[in-house]
Design goal:
Blueprint lengths: L13 E5 L5 E2 L3 H12 L7 H12 L5 H9 L2 H20 L4 E2 L3 H10 L3 E5 L4 H11 L7 E3 L13 H10 L8 E5 L2 H10 L3 E5 L6 H6 L4 E3 L5 H35 L1
Parallel strand pairs: 1-4, 1-6, 4-5, 6-7, 7-8
Antiparallel strand pairs: 2-3
Helix pairs in contact: 1-2, 1-4, 3-4, 4-6
């Protein structure tokens, strides 16, 4: 017999974290890699077309990169060429040492796991780029699982697929509402909301501001991911206190009914 029961029972026991802008400071590498890729595809630097495309890249930070290039270049062939050029350029920049963890990010992941939570790192990049980032930071074994859009059927954010893949693949929680999603963009928030995550936390270390995060479903807005372990602990204590209060009220109600029955 196959046992399909999730192995975790921890409240908010699955934490799905974005990488660039949330746990990783890329120092504007996305824009720099796009500029290199665009030039390789014949987009003239300094032109109106270049400026418009770069602005779209900025506006869609957090979205699956291949989706961005499909919009910008129109045909599937050009989009894939642009995506390959982008991934190559980004990898070159990463190899040049131009990437670093955000302050407190590694410690936050370690604390979450020490508290019994399962942590999954996700990205809109291709697997080869995600692995290059993890290798550069020495994070190969930091999280329980890492996912890119290809691991979730090809669709990245704002679709919920990577969050739901994390939920299904880890079996960390029985209820998707015990999933926590954290990211720095509106697309991270949308993916968490659409997946049914109970906590969708925006962080102010990346692309989008508080207003954009809240307008797209953030339940919490944090200065950085370093605050997340404490937020989850407070949420757990609050839920426990609510449960005790409900039990006490139920006991009082039963006692009142008993008194009425005996009257």
């Amino acid at each position: 017999m196959t046992d399909n029961t999730p192995h975790g029972t921890r409240e908010h026991g699955l934490v799905v974290l974005d990488m660039a802008g949330t746990t990783v400071a890329d120092g504007g590498l996305v824009e720099r890699a796009f500029e290199r890729a665009a030039e390789r595809l014949g987009v003239e630097p300094g032109s109106a077309d270049h400026a418009a495309k770069l602005q779209y890249v900025r506006d869609t930070m957090g979205k699956s990169k291949i989706s961005v290039f499909r919009h910008l270049f129109g045909t599937e062939d050009l989009a894939r060429r642009a995506n390959s050029a982008f991934e190559e350029a980004y990898g070159e920049l990463v190899d040049g040492g131009l990437i670093a963890p955000l302050p407190g990010a590694r410690e936050a992941v370690e604390k979450l796991r020490a508290d019994g939570r399962t942590v999954v790192l996700t990205t809109g990049f291709a697997r080869v780029t995600q692995d290059a980032i993890l290798d550069a930071l020495g994070w190969q074994d930091l999280a329980d699982l890492t996912l890119c859009p290809a691991d979730a059927g090809g669709r990245g954010r704002p679709y919920p697929d990577m969050v739901l893949t994390a939920f299904l693949r880890t079996g960390a929680v029985a209820d998707v509402r015990d999933t926590v999603v954290a990211g720095d963009t509106a697309y991270d928030m949308l993916s968490g909301v659409r997946a049914g995550a109970g906590i969708v936390a925006g962080v102010l270390t990346g692309a989008h501001d508080r207003t954009a995060l809240q307008e797209n479903g953030a339940t919490h807005v944090l200065a950085s991911v370093a605050e997340l372990p404490a937020v989850l602990e407070r949420a757990a204590h609050g839920r426990a206190a609510h449960g005790r209060a409900a039990q006490e009220q139920a006991a009082q109600d039963r006692a009142a009914q008993d008194r009425e029955s005996g009257a």
